[in-house]
Specification:
The complex is a heterodimer of chains A (366) and B (482). Chain A is of the alpha+beta class. Chain A is built from 13 helices and 18 strands. Chain A has three domains: 78 residues, Uridine Diphospho-n-acetylenolpyruvylglucosamine Reductase, domain 2, CATH 3.30.43; 119 residues, 2-Layer Sandwich (Uridine Diphospho-n-acetylenolpyruvylglucosamine Reductase, domain 3), CATH 3.30.465.10; 136 residues, FAD-linked oxidase, cap domain/gating helix (Vanillyl-alcohol Oxidase, Chain A, domain 3). Chain A has an eight-stranded antiparallel β-sheet with strand order 14-11-13-12-16-17-15-18. In chain A, strands 4-5-9-7-8 form a five-stranded antiparallel β-sheet. Chain A has a three-stranded parallel β-sheet with strand order 1-3-2, with helices on both faces. The two termini of chain A are 28 Å apart. Chain B has 482 residues and is an alpha+beta fold. Chain B is 35% helix and 20% strand. In chain B, a hairpin with a 4-residue loop joins strand 5 and strand 6. In chain B, helix 1 runs antiparallel to helix 3 and helix 14 runs antiparallel to helix 15. Chain B is globular.
Chain lengths: 366, 482
Amino acid sequence: MSRAVLTAAERFGAAIVEPADEKETAAILRNANETGQAVIPTGGGTKLDWGNPPRKADILLSMRRQSRIIEHAWADLTVTVEAGCTIAELQRTLAEHGQRLAIDPLWPERATIGGILSTNDSGALRLGYGSLRDLIIGITLALPDGTIASSGGKVVKNVAGYDLPKLATGSLGTLGVITRAVFRLHPLPRNTKTLTIAVDDAVSMQRVVSAILGAQLAPAAVQVRQGNVDILLEGTLDGIAAQESAIDKFGNVREGSAAVWNAREELWHDTPMVKFTTLPARIAAASASFSRFVTQATGIGYAQFDGDLQALRTAMEKDGGSLMIFGNTAIDAWGSPGDALPLMRAVKEQFDPKGTLNPGRFVGGI
Amino acid sequence: MNPRTLEDLRGILGPHGLISSSEELRTYECDGLTNFRVIPSAVVLPDSTEQVQAVVRVCHRERIPFVARGSGTGLSGGALPVAGGIVISLARMRRILEVDLPNARVVVEPGVINLDVTGRVASANFFYAPDPSSQSVCSIGGNVAENSGGAHCLKYGFTTTHVLGLEVVLPDGSLVHFGGKTLDAPGYDLAGVFVGSEGTLGIATKITLRIVKRPECVRTLLAAFHSPTEAGAAVSGIIAAGMLPAAIEMMDNLAIQAAEAAVHANYPDCGGLLLVELDGPLAEVDALMAQVDEICRQHGAWEIRVAQSEAERALVWKGRKAAFAAMGRISPNYIVQDGVIPRTSLPQILSEIDQLSAQTGLRVANVFHAGDGNLHPLVLYDRRIEGQEKAAERLSERILELCIEKGGSITGEHGVGEEKKHMMSKMFAEPDLDTMQRVRCAFDPLHLSNPTKVFPRTRLCGEKPGEYVPHPLEIAGVAERF
């Protein structure tokens, strides 16, 4: 049991329950649903403060006992894994066959598959390999009424039925508890190299990023930090060398350390944290609101921010982006989901009509 | 359809936006799957989101089921009209609304043709990645409905990977927006669940697409093997070597013969033909192509060619993309099947298909997206011979059952539609299907949007077990309770 989960249980005054399997998970949910108890699903407990504080929390449903890697079909490049498995443990197993799940989420030694999916935390590799929604191919959910339902499958290409793996990804456990997931995998890169280009100001930062994205290169990840642009190259030595010489033209390039890809994690401190989204051509401009930030080339940034959150959100939304706030209870964590909110409420009503799961943590009070 | 409703529709669309004469309606009686035919009560051709909304509001008020239709190239009967319903054709909504190159986004109306998106951005070295074989005629709206794939989705993903935002008319006529030009919009990923919902959740009227920078270099290798099994082993070798090609396609001898007869692609006459395409930075592609060549030779390839020019490359692909239509050259009738297996089951399912073919005396040509295990067996038959059509249908369905037994899927890219809804219960358990339909109940509680497709049985929304309350649709005779 992680310290974070224990602390949260104490804070909420909630009981911790650790079901051993899918059936027990469904039975606990059904019982809670019938007796009007609110359930907070959790894995490693690393992101329990994401979203709004729950209106009610009676049971902390820990998935840590369900951590088996059910099937690594390495020749088919897929894996079926239980929700409570940490990503680090999964990656170690996959690496035995030279493969990986191509994501780089926060706190990999503690963060579990279920939690990573529920919070949609992909990381910087999203540029090269797509996000979780592109990598998940199957899911099993336990619903508040005790139903256990699967959707998707074990094959990469499959359009039979609705895509519930995507619906569950990023839903913060408000529709059902993820009990297992199936992913498509990628081979581990043969070689990797991190390059860093120092930049003087936002204009040159954007110029460098846009030049890299506009060139016919294939970087696995690109991010900007204060005064720096980081580029991750993967592939054959010849391919990396050729791309490196192309990138050389864009600025003062030095070989960076692989540790720069932990910069996002290192940002996390007690100061208020935000995640913002913006257009790729505006990442430097949007990042200029912050003194400490890590912004990925896909247009997703993370920053410390101590100022007027509402004004910042308004500015981000005006530019077509959004602002998510971590760990500040004075202001809604999400911002407006727009005109689709009534439909989102209708979806919630179909899956969890009594509001048993994570009540109030998601958008619009869902 | 009652005259007042027709008048309402005419009022919304004008005289040229409504089709109600029986001869003209016949054009819309089926899509690319021609063995299902239903003549709709009316067809409307809106040219704006407002018109789509107004039409859907009339349908909602009158409880008339509707089916959205793009170019009508779908292969599972997804755009098959519903008896007593109307067809909403999006063919007139074909404007490219915005091209935003700095952010690699394009905003289109649903009737825009897939290939025209690439056509519009090609001069800036961008392309739109999903490339179904029908891409020169199929519409983006239809691609969204079916979550269309194509040969290059092995590397680039499917339609859903490239749809970032949607404007949707819901089945009650209200307008909503999912996602947008930026990623990770707050809330549920409704764009993710809408793409591939086969027109059952509403009608997309505006679609924000991601476009992709054209790679520096594209190389296509053709390798001739004695059998598909050898070719399949080479595919495993390529994957095991840690490569992710842009596409890996395979054709068996019958498919090669047909493609040769149709487009003279100059394929080697072999038992199993592999087409491997690598793209990316030149140096990377060169290094990997040498390895692909070696792996193919190790697995028995007796002839290897690399397309030397863009024209040669185009010809290689033309043969592959024409493969379905080319079957007409070697058989009077044929069924195009679409199933998926875990790639490693390929040799096994091939020998099982061979056995089925021998037992029934029906020829089966095989075209595969071999990299991701997506099979397109083509079951050849002659309708004029008593009993052959039925036998071909049975054989085709048996292949899908084999796919399910191997842990695969009944469709990789053509959709469930009308054709395969009875197979859904073989692939999914009842609680799985029931849970999917909860989504439908949230979007379309009255089951008006393409109501008879995808699911074998309709979940009546809001029903409580134990008490019987007739649903409005039952009373109207639109739905049945099983």
